[in-house]
UniProtKB/TrEMBL annotation:
It comes from the Bacteria. This is Integral membrane protein. It comes from Streptomyces heilongjiangensis. Keywords: Membrane, Transmembrane, Transmembrane helix. The chain crosses the membrane at residues 21-41, 47-73, 80-105, 111-133.
Amino acid sequence: MSATPLAALARTTDPRTMLRRFLAADAAVTGANGLAYLVAAGPLGRFLGVGAGLLAALGAFLTVYAAAVALLAARGRPPAWAVTAVVEANLAWALLSLVALALWLGPSTAGAVWTVLQALTVAGFAAAQYTALRAADDRPAA
């Protein structure tokens, strides 16, 4: 993946702005997901075929994680080590989601589809953030 197609998606050619936008989008999507899990753990759990307690715990974690990513996105120059941690956490989440689906979870069809889709989305955020970080690191400081 190169930064050029991502520039159109991020609507900027500035790698630092691109990086911050991808972090902000990740925070928004993750935060919305976490809040939904927290607020509607029972109904969502029944629909997805996953325990409400698990969804509530995941919701709490995702909400805190989203806040941390949002704070990182708000920085003018997010530190590379912190962005790398977000990329690695996103990749771990995507992988663990698929492993949990294969080995542990017994969701409904909707839950299985949701798990795969959210894993792909999170992996996509990781790829976009990694590419933008590399582009930002290659550009001289302003």
